[in-house]
Design goal:
Elements lengths: L2 H11 L4 H10 L4 H15 L10 H19 L30 H15 L11 H8 L2 H4 L1 H7 L5 H11 L11 H11 L2 H4 L3 H11 L7 H6 L7 H11 L3 E2 L2 E2 H13 L11 H10 L2
Antiparallel strand pairs: 1-2
């Protein structure tokens, strides 16, 4: 069987009607007579009892009529299906070009084509995409169907979109598609309390797990969160003992401690800086 007949056979098995397959192939400039011949060949291949064996003229007429009737009866139940489909293997022979996306890697090119398809509101260029799942997203106009997923695919920050969707649908499960699950869960709780969002204990456990404050058990974390001078000596010694990396000539601990002192507006932290110029700078800023 030819590539054309292989393609038609696959599409028929998926449930698409002969008319739909023919319409798509005509769209991509395949001659109608070749399509008709291929359709008949596929049906003969599928139903060997209908193959011709040296028929006479009158027999040929009867067999052809019978085949046409069988094809109509077979494909009729599937004729009403409204499925979005575009041809991959056959259409590839008449592949479009998208100059705007030339020179990019395969993944980047697919993203570029998807962006263009959205901008132009045209799915015909989706045929040049390499990734099959992305191609399906493109044909299905994912930017209209699921804006958050579209943002994810093209590498934009979709977290705000997922948070808005979770709030609108009052569904915490939407947040699991976000990169920052905690931010999404918090947005959901800000809009409605946990008792409104959750209908069962499992939901409450999930939200509480992702929204509870992180455990602050490192010296740097403790320093960052303290404004109390009591026990400051011990905390800073503990931190300096753990962090001895240098950034240029200055200890990383001094750089971080300087930033913490400014953030907490705690001039007492400045005196623990080992670099004198940084110490003076810190005290000048916090006078």
């Amino acid at each position: 069987m030819s590539k054309l007949t292989d393609y038609i056979e696959k599409e028929l098995k998926k449930g698409f009607s002969s008319e739909k397959i023919k319409e798509t192939l005509v769209k991509y400039k395949y001659p109608e007579d070749e399509i008709e011949e291929a359709l008949i060949e596929v049906k003969q291949h599928e139903f060997p009892q209908h193959r011709w064996k040296k028929p006479l003229l009158w027999e040929m007429t009867g067999v052809i009529s019978g085949l046409i009737l069988i094809i109509i009866l077979l494909v009729y139940p599937f004729g009403n299906g409204e499925k979005i489909t575009e041809k991959i293997e056959i259409v590839a022979e008449k592949q479009l070009t998208v100059p705007e996306c030339d020179g990019l890697s395969v993944g980047e090119r697919d993203v570029c084509v998807l962006r263009l398809a959205k901008q132009q509101n045209e799915t015909q260029i989706c045929v040049v995409m390499s990734d099959v799942s992305r191609k399906i997203d493109c044909y299905q106009r994912i930017w209209e169907k699921d804006e958050c997923r579209y943002l994810d695919i093209v590498g934009e920050d979709a977290d705000e979109c997922y948070a808005g969707k979770a709030v609108n649908e009052n569904d915490e499960n939407v947040c699991f598609s976000a990169k920052n699950i905690t931010r999404c869960m918090n947005a959901l709780l800000d809009k409605a309390g946990i008792d409104v969002v959750c209908k069962d204990s499992n939901c409450k456990q999930q939200i509480e797990f992702f929204t509870k404050p992180p455990i602050c058990d490192t010296p740097l974390c403790k320093l960052s969160s303290t404004n109390n001078n009591a026990g400051l000596d011990k905390l800073i010694v503990e931190y300096k003992n753990k962090e001895t990396t240098k950034i240029g000539n200055i200890l990383k601990s001094d750089e971080e401690l300087y930033e913490i002192a400014l953030k907490n507006k705690n001039i007492n932290m400045c005196k623990y800086l080992e670099d004198n110029s940084l110490k003076l700078k810190c005290m000048e800023k916090l006078k």
